[in-house]
Amino acid sequence: MTADSTPALVQNADTDGPAPAGPSADRGPRARNTKAYLQYVAAKIAGAAVSLFAVLVTSFFLFRLIPSDPVKQMTGGRPVSAEQLQSLRRQFGLDQPMWQQFTSYVGDALTGDFGLSFQFHAPVIDKITEALPATLLLTGTSYVLYTALGIWLGTRTAWRNGSLSDRFNTAFALTLYSVPAFWLGLLLIIVFAVGIGPIPGLFPTGGLDSGTGETGFAHVLDVAHHLVLPVITLVSVGYAQTLLVMRSSLLDEMGSDYLTTARAKGLRDDVVRRKHAVPNAMLPTFTLMFVNLGHVVAGQILVETVFSWPGLGGLFYEALSVPDLPLVQGLFFVFATAVILANTLADVLYPLLDPRVGR
Questions:
Q1: Would you state the pLDDT for residue 282?
Q2: Burial track 87-109 (b if 16+ CB lie within 10 A, e otherwise)
Q3: Rounded to an integer, what distance in angstroms lies between the CA atom of residue 359 and that of residue 357?
Q4: pLDDT tens digits for range 149-180
Q5: Residue 120 CB partners (closer than 8 Å, separation 6+)
Q6: Which residues are CB-neighbours of 269 under 8 A, at least 6 positions away?
Q7: pLDDT, tens digit, 9 for 90 and up, residues 125-141
Q8: Are 155 and 273 in contact (CB under 8 A)?
Q9: Which of 56, 72, 290, 325 has its CA 20 to 30 A from that of 270?
């Protein structure tokens, strides 16, 4: 038998039998990995769907435990006849049995219809869409700043572990991380908005703008001026968490053998840090970044309330005080959905960074 007529065979390590050589042999493990990854993604998406349904159920029943009559709250304590109260309950569907209210709510919510706001007499989705840009402006700006600052400082402090700057930055971050964001916001308002002692009031106490009708670049500067204190509040708390996670992850990597090997090859210390240590230490921080990304939509309820920021957080607080059940339920569902989707996206992307996940 000549070499040309001999079939190209290779030994299969799993079955001890022959397997065809060539490109098809290389596609086997890759195809299995792709199939396993798709199964992993499908499981995560199914889990997210179950979580979203659980949120729908929770958002409906949770806020009905509030001991308050929303119809009486809407009348503002004014004397109203029983017939008028009954008419309002019928108008908003509050006279229906609980199970019927629930099925109607779930069916409408799945189509994006969260009902009519008791307080504003407008569709809930319209009120959410109206307030969303202000929240994205505030929390999105803060997210970018505290993520970049936390990763940079976390890397620096870990690489100089035990130094004076490491001890100072770690202690300062722990202090800020333990401070409630709304309390820090109130403190900043007292010191830098109202003014105290020799410090004059430099910034507005709240709101998105001054309401003077300015346009163009003047309006941009006005909004930026109002952003300073709430952004500082969110960045101060958010960067501390990112710094601590990044520092801890990098410290775990610093004793690894591959870093010793990289140094033995003559690589500079900053190259070893940037190209070898930091990318591997970024994995836990990557997850935290996506968790925080979900909170960009959810906003910060108390911080927005303290600064009278016209976003989703302030709207939620205002709706909860009535209680405006359709608006509260719609906002709660949006907040939870944003967090669930961000976590699911992190789970889906994580195996692409670390192949050990999802096997």
A1: 82
A2: ebeeebebeeeeeebbeebeeeb
A3: 6
A4: 999 999 888 888 888 988 999 999 999 888 88
A5: 127, 324, 327
A6: 263
A7: 999 999 999 999 999 99
A8: yes
A9: 290
